[in-house]
Amino acid sequence: MNIIKVTNNQFQLNTQNTSYVMHNENGVLCHTYYGKRLPDCDHSYMIKRNRYNGDFQSDVSENIPSLDNALLEYPVFGDGGITNPALEVLNSDGTNFADLKVVDFVVHNGKPEIDGLPASYAEDGDNVQTLEIKTVDSFSGVEVSLFYAVFYDYDVITRWVKITNNGENNITLLKALSGNIAFDNHNYDVISNFGTWARERQIERAPLLHTGAVVEANCGSSSHSTNPFLIMAERNTTEHNGEAVGIALAYSGNHKMSANLSRYNVVNLSGGISNDNFRWNLEKGESFSTPELVISFSDSGLNGLSQNFHSIIKNRVCRGIYRDKKRPVLLNLWEACYFNFTDETIKKAADSAADLGVELLVIDDGWFGKRNNDRSSLGDWNVNEEKIKCGLDELCKYVNSKGLMLGIWFEPEMISPDSELIKKHPEWVMQIKGRKPTETRWQLMLDLTNPEVQDFVYDSIANVLKTTNIEYIKWDYNRTMAHIGSTYLKADQMGEYYHRYILGLYNVLERLTTDFPKVLFEGCASGGGRFDIGMLYYTPQIWTSDDTDAVERAEIQYGTSLIYPMSCISAHVSVCPNHQTGRTTSMAARHIFALTGSFGYELAPEKIAENDREYIKNFIKFYNDNFEVFQNGKYYRLSNPKADDYAIFEYVYNNKVIVGLMRLKTHAVNLQTNVKLVGLDENKIYTDKATGKTYYGSQLMNYGLKIMTNGRNNDFYAMMWEFE
Ligand code: DGJ
Description:
Helix content is 19%, strand content 30%. By secondary structure, it is α+β, with helices and mostly antiparallel strands. Strand 7 (128-137) and strand 8 (142-151) form a beta hairpin. The radius of gyration is 26 Å and the shape is globular. It starts with a strand and ends with a strand. (2R,3S,4R,5S)-2-(hydroxymethyl)piperidine-3,4,5-triol (DGJ) binds at residues 334, 364-365, 374, 409, 476, 478, 524, 526-527, 543, 546.
């Protein structure tokens, strides 16, 4: 199997169904091709020569009058190109340039780690190789190594860059993206997510124009507003057909993902840490590694592309026992009681949850300090004895005695102005000396660039985990960064703040997940405000949104599924009328759409009506019997819940197929619809478990399921089919 092939100055990287080709043009690394798999042969006829006169037949390339017309693999500021460079290096003489020429390359078996950063990994026996191409600016001594890890079986290539100052003088990086891919085909649509609190990851699709497309966050986290990925699809690409390429960044801080269309119709698709307020000083001998950019191509439409991302993230980004182990059915008490609970009410909830078949009970915000609302105590991570009189350990023992695991909420990166911690350590607050930092939700942020603060955060959580049998931590983060500054860093390091903060966060997460391997960590940031591949390396599931309304969730989970696997998307059934929208939806709608994620509940179990209890017990049993379908099956989006009358999804796992549907719009006359299934075996016979009726795969895929929902009550009627 030829994963990485190097001949005649051409580098060809192959996955099962894709090829990525580059060439070395007199030392300049240029892009040749990325798309459907090519034979291992010479591709030099594809090379786009960089001539100004439009003589595309010419094979002569002695002159490069405009780099906007060149497919550069890693464009550098100051090289003469006009559009979006990937690298900007400020030299000690005040100039901003690096003239990078290829000097060497090496092929590694497997995949090296990236210092201090989360990244995909290869396991023994995986068909993974990594190409490292070394480029050097001989004038300044700056060395830039471009890494390409090729996951053959996953149709994924990941890229990152390591920059080393081998010169005599200090340099400063002003921009260092993780990767850039140049295309000379330009008829693309760009697809991205935008959002807000309670409305995360809405999909937008628009043609790529010469004005370009930029997805960026500069608030310190990957954010509710944008998500660190960008997809470029051919204009006619649909969910099931056509070509699409996607890039997603394994990073939780500021990002910039962009697609740039040059005046000569060259597209540069790039991603990495945002260069806004980014500076990184490199003294002689020092190196800087960028986060990893995960790249995939599919010619099976957007579903095909999503499945590639799902598979690599689920299997080679997520780690720990919960990567493969069944996720427990979780019941979180936040919407049940908010800050208002005692140990007695939690015990009652545990009794009732155990009876339903719930496996993990989670106490959310409000168990510590004197926190009875969101105005105090962040940082005082000792139990609130007025509420939990028996103490956490005893409460945990009680919950465990009912056969349930216990989980607990933390917001470890924060500090309340009304806290004991701030009295002891005012210098630990993220702050600009002499200025009053801005509060958001009555809270300030801790300065995670400071190793002492990192230790404090580690100890706060480790103490609870060491003294109780708590087996789950919800890691929340409820504000954006402001007043970026530190009492710990030096003045010339302030431009490094955002990235140093994220490195501090990863350091703490790495230590905790290593030292407490049995604990399930779940990410959260005011709902889904930090939902990215970086966090998924530590927390295999993330709370997707504070909006638990089934209709809104159908949209949010639909958008999230573009890149992220369903097992990572925490989805809970809550009560009606829904707390965020006031809407009432059927029990079936709420349950079925919580299957497009890691399944759980967000309600007071003891308040559930008797007939609903039976429904829930049966549903949990159904979920447990089929968890592999939801955790490991291929997930397909069959409709667009924002535009269509129905939200419809399908899971396929071995011989099992589960289809879920919710009616979103009620019409006086409901017309019949056929839902065509996908991903089945044409010649196999599928039995509908409920009716015993049998169908050929080809029938279900070509005619489809017949749907006739009637009735005028607008309760968002939902149904599910199970085929085997
Ligand atoms: C925001 C989270 O998204 C909610 O689920 C809840 O944990 C609150 N924070 C608690 O303050």
